[in-house]
Every structure is written in structure tokens, then in C-alpha cells.
Amino acid sequence: MSEGKDNLVPVIKVPTDERKLNLSKHFYNEFGCQPEFIVRVPGRVNLIGEHIDYCGYPVLPMALEQDILLAGSLIKEHKLLMRNTNSKYENFETELKSFNEIVITPDANGKPYWYNYMLCGIKGALEHLNNEVLYGLNMYVDGNIPPASGLSSSSALVSAACLAFLYAQKAVLNKIDIAGLCARCERYIGTQGGGMDQAIAFLAEKYCAQYITWNPTKATKVVLPEGASFVVAHSLAEVNKAATNDYNRRVAECRLAAKLLSLSIQTMSHTVITLGQVQKLLNKSLEEMIALVKETLPKDIYTKEEICAILNVSTDELDNFYLTPNTKQLSEFKLKQRALHVYEEARRVEDFKKICEKTNKCLNGTNGTSSVKEDINTLESLGKLMSESHESLKNLYECSHENLDRLVDISFQMNVHARLTGAGWGGCIVALCPREKVKEYIEALEDEFYIKHCNIDKSKANSYVFATSPNFGAESNQSE
Ligand code: ADP
Ligand code: NG1
Ligand code: MG
Q1: Is 197 a catalytic site residue?
Q2: Which ligand has the minimum distance to the alpha carbon of residue 424?
Q3: pLDDT in tens, 342-365
Q4: Å from CA of 390 to ligand 3 middle
Q5: Residue 10 binned pLDDT confidence (cut-offs 50, 70, 90)
């Protein structure tokens, strides 16, 4: 493979900041040597385009400042030693086995152990390397992405482990390939994710969001309007996405909706098809797809038997080809609602990107000056798309949470548009706030939500909400 240097995850010899120094200290105390390298993978906030990556549609995330740092050193024994600066994540050690001997098993409640995410990254890397291994690894992790909160802490952890392991085995991959590999790795945890989190983790650039398209994966910079600030606020509800079947249920419903919509097209009988592929095959616009869903999938609920009858397949075939181990037991599916969300959300992503590009063009054409009125209109148009996205996620996709809805409502009372970000069922909102209003908005959220509604102490309220701007993607920092 010919690699442009820009396409590789950069290895930068930089002196370390305080967090890295602290991590190195932990590392030294535990392993008796300095780390040989540190990898850094950021979390992300998705501005718009929720639950559509696995349907083949573009999304619009940006990387956060918060990240996972993983310090590592190579060892001759084929072993993996994993440590975490947060004592709630227990030590873990295992022999470095071959790819298919790494079995990823959750705890008795079905919740993954933290190190399972690391094992996912290493399992996928081993598969990629055909089990050709040079070294084992000592690894120490330090993370500050709020976990289980829709900011993609899981993918940062999986990707950091995969990147560290590849680095230890002297394997070189470009950013697009490693993002794809890490997306496949994370599926070993049990969720059928679409690839957004890993793509932005590697392809992010400072100062701009990215419009990410699939097959092949490509990131196009989107410059956000000057006057816009994006604020992230936690709903105080954490949810581990691999511990329930909510996520995979939505993936399965989209697959089944796509299969039913594709009945008029000649497809191989058991090929899994996405809602995006159906649109392409039918050569229709998103508006036409929305009309087709209403016409073809009129019912609110489809039973498994009904779907089998329409597709002319047995229950076993449906289970094996379209469902996942944790969705096989489901007996009812919502197809119309999920497909409508996907096509409408895909349209919102296009509109959002167009508005940003138009604003940018205007700015370039007028030497960077835009009228205040123009700015307010732009922010209002973008904000409206975000509000519509939240409504759709709440009502059609049913992945919101009462605390998320409350945060969105409080924002709206302040004329700030907000939406849940990430998979949902808890986690965070992202709000588009005019820059000059950020302080006032954050204070209002602290008072109305954290202090009054959740009884959080005033001194702690501000730790759950922060303004953010687009950050860099993953890096490997080699120790001097
Ligand atoms: P998210 O929306 O943050 O990606 P997930 O449910 O997908 O949420 O993954 C959250 C899980 O990732 C946590 O329950 C934990 O096991 C793991 N995790 C996140 N951050 C860390 C960390 N700093 N150290 C160890 N494990 C972490
Ligand atoms: P989080 O919020 O990290 O659980 C998940 C998926 C994404 C995407 C979003 C919803 C993974 C690793 N991530 O994100 O691919 O589908 O939900 O837009 O599965
Ligand atoms: Mg996750």
C-alpha cells in the first residue's frame, strides 16, 4: 500500500503535559520503567446525524478535547497487562492468545468489563495481523471522557488499544484503514455500530467538524459559523450501550425496514441491505423515500411472524440473517418510525452542511465580515434542524430520556436549540448557543437543571456542562 505521510497517525516527539507526566509516573510505579509511547484518542460530539451511520448515511461530528491516553511499553513475553488510573477499573492481565482464542465475555449482568473494550481493539488487530505478534504489552490507561454518556468513550478506548497494539507490532496503517479496523473491532463488544465514532477519532481536525461519508469512508471539513458555540451538558443518566439490546434492536429494525422496502428490487435473497442502499437502488430522493415508507410500511408495529410472511422466510432464517444474538428473542418491531427518522435525519444533515457552507462562502466573499442579522438567521436555521433531530429521536426513534428532554426544554426556554447526542437513552445533549450568550446559558442550565431539578451542589454543577470547539484526531506520542 502506498501511504502519504499525512494519512498516517502522526508520531510526534513532544514533551509531555501534566496529565501525561502523571500517567508516566503511574506507569513507572507499576511496571518499573518509563512508557515507550503514549497514544491519545479523543471522544467526540455528534452535531447532527444520529443513528444513521449504520444505515449508510453521512454524519457530522467533531472531536472533543477530552480523550483516552494509553501509555505502553513492549515486553518479550506474549502477555497483556492492563491498568487504569481510575481505581474503579480493576487490573487485568492475560496471555496474548491468537485472535479466535480471545473471547470477550461480560459480567453476570451482561455489562462489559472495561478491559473488554481493550480486548476488542487487540482482537481486531490480531486478526488484521494474521496473529503475527512480536511483543506483549504493558498498558496504563487514563481517560477523561465522561463514560457511558454518548461522547464515545468506548470507541476511544477500543481505538487506543488497537492503535497501541499495532504500534507495538510495527504495523503501519493509514487513518482511514485504522478507523475501519477499529469500527470492526468494537463490534466484538456486541453492538453493531456504524463507524462514526472511530472515523472521527482518526480523521478529526482542529477548528472544523467533519462530514463523514461511507463506502469508502471519507471526511470533508465543515467550517462552523463564527458566532456559534457548541455546549455539551450531561443528563446525569449513564447508560452502557452494550449492556442492553436497545441499540441492536434499532439496527435490526432498520435492516428489516430496508429489506421490506427493497422487495420490489431484485436482491440476493439473504443479503443484508441498508436503508441507504435501498435509496440508491431505487434511485429516489430522500423525499420520495419518506413517501415510500409511509405507503409501504403503514403499520405501527410488525410482528416477527408478519415480517417472515412478507419476506417469505422462516423464523430461523430471519434470526440468522437479520437479527443479532441479543435481538433474536424480540417478537415485535417498529419499522415505519425508524425508517422515517433515518431518511428525515439524513436530509437534516445535508441541510446543516449546506447552511454552514453557504455562510462560509459569504464570509469568504466579504472579507470575513457578515452582518449580525445574517449570523442570527444562520444560527436559528441550524438550531431548528437540531431541535427537529431531537424531536425525531424522542418520538420516532424512542432513544431519549426524561432528563435529556428536560435539558432540551430548559434550553428552548432560553432560545437555545439542543438535541441528544450519541446513541441516547441517557448521556449528553449538544446545544448550539450564540457565542455571546454561552456564560448566561451555562449558568441557567446549572440553576434550572443541576441545582433545582437534580439537587446537585452549586460547587459541582459546573462540572457537568462545558463549551467545546473542534479538536485534533488520534496521535501517538513517542517518549523521548
Ligand atoms: P460511550 O457513549 O461513552 O461510548 P458506551 O456504553 O459505549 O458509552 O461505553 C462506556 C464504557 O466504556 C464504560 O462503561 C467503560 O467500561 C468503558 N470506559 C469508558 N471510559 C473509560 C476509562 N477512562 N477507563 C476504562 N474504561 C472506560
Ligand atoms: P455511542 O454514543 O458511542 O454509543 C453509538 C454508535 C455510533 C452511532 C451512534 C448514534 C458505536 C461504537 N457507536 O455511539 O456508531 O450509531 O451511537 O448515532 O456503536
Ligand atoms: Mg460507545
Answers
A1: yes
A2: 2
A3: 999 999 999 999 999 998 776 665
A4: 19
A5: low
